[in-house]
């Protein structure tokens, strides 16, 4: 996993400039900032939640950095599967950085405010990185499908060039997807209440505050989210149905176990992530209470990024063995340095 593994795509900067320019020139809102309410019924526990969220954030960043670094340093892990895991770890660090630091700040702040521009930028980057993760998980499922169902053609298809192209495509498509939604929201007038009934800025709570008809924006938001989430999820499930069919054809129990073990971690991550975002975004009408929305937002924005490194390290023998090799190498190196001093 080299430096080239993290694509430096220009779509981020282009979309950033476009969105900022639109917000400066087209929006005539009286509201200049929003108040993020979070969990209003739990305000007396804000210190406890701050400490808990801070620990979760530090563990998430540390865990993903460990996986990213181990895969980069260990030559035995320089395979397409771990290349994608490496990118996923980097993505999770970016994904959590869009919301959790501001959530931590709000837990300590009395105002819990965020500027209009800052709110839209948070929405844009959160959805961009979320869409990128959907595409990346799909690419990982395709990689496992080729490895198990097309083993003779796997190395010919999933070469270095193909891996980089798939990663670049995931990031580019991810950063393009929310542009239309952000532009539509940036043109809406906000002249009344400015309290966002959520734990961070997001499209549904923002649309509910606009003082005009938002049916078009709601429909566009629903269509884009439904397409991204359901299409990628169905492609992943289709890959695993084919994988299951091929695994059941393996004669030996050891072979079946090995095939299942390479896919189990990825499937757990997929079900956790997609289960929560399908509940949140693939619906036109709000049929659940705001507390349900907040709880599911915690799952896909806080808990899933925390669980990913745990699943990929504790359930993955190759990564565990790589960590052990690095620790053993470090001990040997420190021992030789200590011996040379005497």
UniProtKB/TrEMBL annotation:
<keyword id="KW-0807">Transducer</keyword>
<dbReference type="GO" id="GO:0004984">
    <property type="term" value="F:olfactory receptor activity"/>
</dbReference>
<feature type="transmembrane region" description="Helical">
    <location>
        <begin position="294"/>
        <end position="314"/>
    </location>
</feature>
<feature type="domain" description="G-protein coupled receptors family 1 profile">
    <location>
        <begin position="63"/>
        <end position="312"/>
    </location>
</feature>
<feature type="transmembrane region" description="Helical">
    <location>
        <begin position="124"/>
        <end position="142"/>
    </location>
</feature>
<keyword id="KW-0812">Transmembrane</keyword>
<keyword id="KW-0297">G-protein coupled receptor</keyword>
<keyword id="KW-0716">Sensory transduction</keyword>
<keyword id="KW-0552">Olfaction</keyword>
<feature type="transmembrane region" description="Helical">
    <location>
        <begin position="264"/>
        <end position="282"/>
    </location>
</feature>
<protein>
    <recommendedName>
        <fullName>Olfactory receptor</fullName>
    </recommendedName>
</protein>
<keyword id="KW-0675">Receptor</keyword>
<dbReference type="InterPro" id="IPR000725">
    <property type="entry name" value="Olfact_rcpt"/>
</dbReference>
<dbReference type="InterPro" id="IPR050939">
    <property type="entry name" value="Olfactory_GPCR1"/>
</dbReference>
<keyword id="KW-0472">Membrane</keyword>
<feature type="transmembrane region" description="Helical">
    <location>
        <begin position="47"/>
        <end position="70"/>
    </location>
</feature>
<dbReference type="GO" id="GO:0005886">
    <property type="term" value="C:plasma membrane"/>
</dbReference>
<dbReference type="GO" id="GO:0004930">
    <property type="term" value="F:G protein-coupled receptor activity"/>
</dbReference>
<feature type="transmembrane region" description="Helical">
    <location>
        <begin position="222"/>
        <end position="243"/>
    </location>
</feature>
<keyword id="KW-1015">Disulfide bond</keyword>
<dbReference type="InterPro" id="IPR017452">
    <property type="entry name" value="GPCR_Rhodpsn_7TM"/>
</dbReference>
<keyword id="KW-1133">Transmembrane helix</keyword>
<comment type="similarity">
    <text>Belongs to the G-protein coupled receptor 1 family.</text>
</comment>
<keyword id="KW-0325">Glycoprotein</keyword>
<dbReference type="InterPro" id="IPR000276">
    <property type="entry name" value="GPCR_Rhodpsn"/>
</dbReference>
<feature type="transmembrane region" description="Helical">
    <location>
        <begin position="163"/>
        <end position="185"/>
    </location>
</feature>
<feature type="transmembrane region" description="Helical">
    <location>
        <begin position="82"/>
        <end position="104"/>
    </location>
</feature>
<dbReference type="Pfam" id="PF13853">
    <property type="entry name" value="7tm_4"/>
</dbReference>
<keyword id="KW-1003">Cell membrane</keyword>
């Amino acid at each position: 996993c080299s430096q080239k593994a993290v694509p430096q795509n220009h779509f981020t900067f282009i979309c950033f400039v476009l969105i900022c320019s639109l917000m400066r020139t087209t929006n005539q809102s009286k509201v200049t900032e929003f108040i993020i309410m979070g969990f209003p019924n739990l305000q007396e526990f804000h210190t406890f939640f701050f400490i808990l969220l801070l620990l979760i954030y530090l563990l998430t960043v540390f865990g993903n950095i460990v996986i990213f670094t181990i895969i980069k340093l260990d030559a035995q892990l320089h395979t397409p599967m771990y290349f994608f895991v490496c990118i996923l770890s980097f993505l999770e660090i970016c994904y959590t950085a869009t919301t959790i630091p501001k959530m931590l700040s709000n837990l300590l702040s009395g105002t819990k405010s965020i500027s209009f521009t800052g709110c839209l930028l948070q929405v844009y980057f959160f959805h961009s990185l979320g869409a990128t993760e959907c595409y990346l998980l799909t690419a990982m499922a395709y990689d496992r499908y080729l490895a198990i169902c097309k083993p003779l053609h796997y190395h010919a298809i999933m070469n270095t060039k193909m891996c980089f192209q798939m990663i670049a495509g995931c990031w580019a498509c991810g950063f393009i997807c929310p542009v239309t939604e952000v532009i539509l929201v940036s043109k809406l007038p906000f002249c009344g209440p400015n309290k966002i009934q959520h734990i961070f800025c997001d499209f549904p709570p923002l649309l509910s505050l606009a003082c005009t008809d938002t049916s078009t924006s709601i429909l566009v938001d629903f269509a884009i989210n439904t397409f991204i989430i359901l299409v990628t999820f169905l492609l992943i499930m289709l890959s695993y149905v084919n994988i299951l069919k091929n695994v059941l054809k393996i004669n030996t129990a050891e072979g079946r176990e090995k095939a299942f073990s390479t896919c189990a971690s990825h499937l757990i991550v997929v079900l956790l992530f997609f289960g929560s975002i399908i509940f949140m975004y693939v619906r036109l009408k709000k049929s659940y209470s705001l507390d349900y929305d907040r709880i599911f937002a915690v799952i896909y924005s806080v808990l899933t990024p925390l669980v990913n490194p745990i699943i990929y390290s504790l359930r993955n023998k190759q990564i565990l063995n790589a960590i052990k090799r690095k620790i053993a190498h470090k001990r040997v190196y420190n021992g030789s340095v200590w011996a040379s001093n005497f």
